[in-house]
Amino acid sequence: MNPAPPTLGAEPQSPTARRPRLTQGLLGLVVLVVLAFVLDVALGPVRIPVLTVARHLLGHGAAADTATAFIVHQIRLPKALTALAVGSGLGVSGLQMQTLFRNPLAGPSALGLTAGAGLGVALVMLTGGGGASALAVRQLGLAGSWALVLAATAGAASVMALVLALAARLRDNVVLLIVGLMVASVTGAIVSLWQYFSAPEQIQDYLLWTFGALGGVTGPHLAVLATVVALGLGLALASAKPLNALLLGENYARSLGLRVRRSRTLIILSTSLLAGGVTAFCGPIGFVGIAVPHLTRALLGTADHRILLPGACLLGAALVLACDCLAQLPGSQITLPINVVTSLLGAPVVLWVVLRRPIRAAA
Amino acid sequence: MSLAPPPAAAPILTAENLTLGYTVRKKVPRLVAGPLQLTLWPGELVCLLGPNGAGKSTLLRTLAGMQAPLGGSLAIGGVPLASLSPEARARQLSIVLTERIEASHLTVQEVVSLGRHPHTGWLGGLAAHDHAQVQAALAATGTAQFAPRPVGELSDGERQKVLLARALAQDTPLLVLDEPTAHLDLPNRVALLRLLHQLARTLGKAILLSTHELDLALQAADRVWLLPATGELLAGPPEDLVLSGAFAAAFQREGLAFDIATGTFELHAPTGPPVQLLGDGPAAFWTRRALLRAGFVPTAGPAAGCVTVPAETGAGLWLSQLPGQAARAHSTIGALLQALRNDFNQLG
Predict the structure, then answer these.
(1) How distant is the Cα of A267 from the closest Cα of chain B, in angstroms?
(2) Which of A3, A359, B76, B304 would suit a FRET pair with B28, their CA atoms being 20 to 30 Å apart?
(3) Which residue of A has its CA nearest to B131?
(4) Structural domain B13-92+172-259, CATH architecture
């Protein structure tokens, strides 16, 4: 049954020769993430020398300097770790969505998860009991409120359940993309309607949430976020082979023995954990999910998801850490909302990708 | 070209009383074709021919497991297709579809490597044996020199060969291609069919393809599956189907007349005066075609007009004679046609 010995083959040429280059690329990204991480801890209203940061991170912090130790361990380190989780989660989730939907502009929000989380938060903030939660927001910071986290999680989870139920019935991924966008649209409209009938202070609280924030995710919150993101990344790794097959289109993928619906469920589950978890704790953070996959592909020059997934994970982390450094506005006491910085950086990247295409096709 | 391999012990694909069609919204199933009795043997190239709408695509989709049959049995390698897991099916059967690959940034090497998907582990890593299979597929299709190029930059003919290489890398005993010659120019169509014929011989695979290239299919196919619009499939060596008249009958509904003598479809249906054609060889063949196009009906027996073709190609004169006139000589077919038209017009 297997009468095709590779007799006609020339000697195996260079598919393996590219590996070292890709491995070097990934190692380079690891270095970039470490640098951005140290810099992110160092920068802020109180600047801490990089060497001191390194000593603290390696566990050799001078015991006498308690103020610095407090800032590093209680504020900066959790924030940098949050940035790490946010960046890797959104980058990987964006890559999965772009390949699943074969759409270069798809992102973590394509399935309506972000909008679902927004609806959950709006539910808490804009309804009658809003006063209490708003108070909690002011006192504890945005992410400090379990009520908000739970509401956002519930919102994202219900959208995920809806999309998963539909995904099991649909044969075509493109239809699923339209469904996701419509769910996002309807959810956004409900939130708008709610805002229209709400008091200005409540709207302001909600707007504050939509700015996104990396700070304030500490202790148990950080543990939960890290667990959810790690789980999502693990599932993402298992989706590398299906994603590669899906590059050829669903029909070819099916002919290669891929169980398309099962793979789709795996991918959606992974993305939901990543994007839903991040949005629940940090609010909507735009453009990272769309921009990082494009940057990763351009940087590593491969379409192989076994390389791209870790690449997007690392590059996403580096990018969000860098954005957080910029958000500190070096040399000032002001901290910009993270969502504003990522969008300011991300939109030009998306433009670059869109404008680059016809030029390459003509060349 | 090597001779066909000796008959194999077992067919790769067998179908008994297979009926094809669609079930729309759980209502009454719509029968497209069937019941069909089919067999595919290792080492043979089979062309699926038939007019549009006869169900060629439906048949291929059903055989490839992309669509469930309405009834009957279908087995690959002796195992019912429905009982095979997707992975096991992918190791028995590979396909080349008409749809384009949208990921135009994938390199040829990457596309062909994806053919190894059903043979690799959960992460999809390629072992030495997999790399060897990929290289063999690239070499067999003559695409090794494109390996580092993105598929988006290839010509239609090159891309079709790459898709074939991907299917070969999948290393399946059965290969199904849906209209692989569409969008190709004539030299590429000829080259592709020749390549497929060679691959069936050298690799011992069963290759099934649908095509509208009737002339080429009649030359390249070991066997033809003829699916007329009536839905009853006829199978056999192309020559048998032509001589039995089955081939002509299958395309008659489309208003096409198949000429058994020349193996071509008649483009013209002449209604003009009959002309006796004397002589043989290439000159007679091409003169006959010219007469047909000009509206005359060439005949072997005596007729109103008579044309004698030169005995040697490239030299000699065409003679034309009409009743009550002297024979006239012409140095080209163009001049002959001109004279015939004038003469018959004068006759009224």
Answers:
(1) 15
(2) B76
(3) A12
(4) 3-Layer(aba) Sandwich (3.40)
